[in-house]
Amino acid sequence: MQELLERITIEAGKCGGRPCIRSLRMPVSDVLGMLAAGESEASILRFHPDLEPEDLRACLAYAAQETDRP
After folding, report:
1. Each residue of 27-70: pLDDT tens digit?
2. How many helical (H) and strand (E) elements, i.e. helices and strands, does the chain have?
3. In the beta sheet, which residues pair with residue 27?
4. Alpha-carbon distance 23 to 1, whole Å?
5. Pairing of strands 8-9, 20-21
6. Cα-flanking dihedrals φ and ψ of residue 67, to 5°?
7. What is the DSSP letter of 24?
8. Is the sign of the CA dihedral 31, 33, 36, 38 positive or negative?
9. Environment class of residue 28 by beta-carbon count within 10 Å: exposed (0-12), middle (13-18) or buried (19+)?
10. What residues have CB less than 8 Å from 66, skipping those under 6 apart?
11. HSE (CB half, 13 Å, CA atoms) of 14?
12. Alpha helices in 18-52 (DSSP H)
């Protein structure tokens, strides 16, 4: 799981410091929103060719980590 989480970057000058995928200016929250809306992984990858399947899993891993805090 740590390997996936390394794909998530947080940089003060990008996207207001929100977590993004590999410094691509693609916020994790946008990907999670697409998945929550029922968009398929294939569709997301087709319309966002810079993303890789592991990036989508990284977003889910990041969400799991962030929601597991007391």
Report:
1. 999 999 999 999 999 999 999 999 999 999 999 999 999 998 87
2. 4, 2
3. 20
4. 19
5. antiparallel
6. -90, 0
7. S
8. negative
9. buried
10. none
11. 14
12. 28-36, 41-47
Contact call for residues 5 and 65 (beta carbons, < 8 A): yes
Q: pTM higher than 0.85 for the full model?
A: yes
Classify 64 as helix, strand or coil. helix
What is the structure's pLDDT at 69? 80
* pLDDT computed for residue 7 by the predictor: 97
Cα-to-chain-centroid distance, residue 22: 9
The distance of Cα 34 from the centroid of its chain, to the nearest Å, equals 10
Total Cβ atoms within 10 A of residue 69: 5
Token pair for residue 25? 């200016």
Q: Which amino acid is residue 9, in one-letter code?
A: T
Per the listing, tokens 């207001």 go with 16
